Amino acid sequence: MRDEGPKISPELLLAAYRAGVFPMSEGRDDPEVFWVDPRQRGILPLDAFRMSRSLRKTIRRGHLHATTDLAFDRVVEGCAAREETWINATIFDLYAQLHAQGHAHSVEIWQDEALVGGVYGVVIGGAFFGESMFSTVTDASKMALAYLVDRLRTQGFTLFDTQFVTDHLLSLGAVEIPRSAYHAALADAVLRRVDYGPAGMMAPVQDVIQRSTQTS
Fold it and tell me: Domain total for the chain?
């Protein structure tokens, strides 16, 4: 449904997430925003994330490292830097405001000083609403998800909403659930008192791999 009501504010956007809907646009040059509430919702169960042997090998190599909330705007820009994107100027500005207010977070993957991958999303209570991710080197987006899942698990989150599923997400453990089941999980998650945690370097490599092995 098209947004024909009042101008979208960060507060309205948070209310939409609590109600189970999220915004999209038709493209970067389309000024309009519409709301989406899929019949089948993608989620990534936090105890079912699959870290493949190849991803473990990539992480252990040590040529990439992960941080959180150090380059939020650059991660969103990286996610939008593709031929087709639903991230228009309105959406970019809204999430920048949510980040400034502490409601949106990013995980960054670096190779030396270059940002080569990342993921960002919104936090309400114990729910993380994943928005988009990007990668310019092999396994960077998978590594971002691995570190994000580890952070969410250790902090006590109960819901990781991926909105839709792709082959990429399915390979990592994502599933589809009916809208009614999603709304039930959402209602519980948003009421939980959970802290995302501090910005900066993320958990040590061995801790992330060990905890993933224990749950996969």
Answer: 1
Residues in the chain: 216
Rounded Cα–Cα distance for residues 201 and 203 (Å) = 7
Q: Over 50: is that where the pLDDT of 37 sits?
A: yes
Q: Determine contact, residues 42/149, Cβ cutoff 8 Å.
A: no
pLDDT above 50 for 1: no
Read off the CATH number of the domain in which 64 is found. Answer: 3.40.630.70
Residue 2 lies in a domain: no
Any domain includes 65: yes
Q: How far apart are CA 164 and CA 12, in angstroms?
A: 22
Amino acid letter for position 184: A
CA distance 125 to 122: 10
Q: pLDDT per residue over 96-108, tens digit each?
A: 999 999 999 999 9
